[in-house]
Amino acid sequence: MSDETSAICSAKGCRTAAEWVLAWNNPKIHTPERRKTWIACDEHREHLSQFLGVRGFLKDVVPLADWEAPAGS
User: Considering only CA atoms, which of 53, 45, 48 is closest in space to residue 19?
Assistant: First the structure.
């Protein structure tokens, strides 16, 4: 995510600038070190985190400005 000005929230229908990175993986299909990402605005961060969390997929939530994608993401 090198261009933060173009990062748009992953919530369906939201066009707000993203502020957060939600790193996740589905252990049934991804290796343990693999991280998929959704990005979220302040309004949708909690909702998207809960969605991933109840499934056991959520691994980390960090500010977009601090996100460094792990190698192999």
Answer: 45
Q: What is the pLDDT of residues 4-22, one digit of tens each?
A: 457 999 999 999 999 999 9
Map out the domains of the chain as residue ranges: 4-66
For the CA atoms of 43, 49, 55, 58, what is the dihedral angle to 10 degrees? 150
In this prediction the pTM is 0.83
Sheet holding 58-63, edge to edge: 36-40, 20-24, 58-63
* Distance spanning both ends of the chain, measured CA to CA: 12
Cα torsion 38, 42, 44, 49: sign:
positive
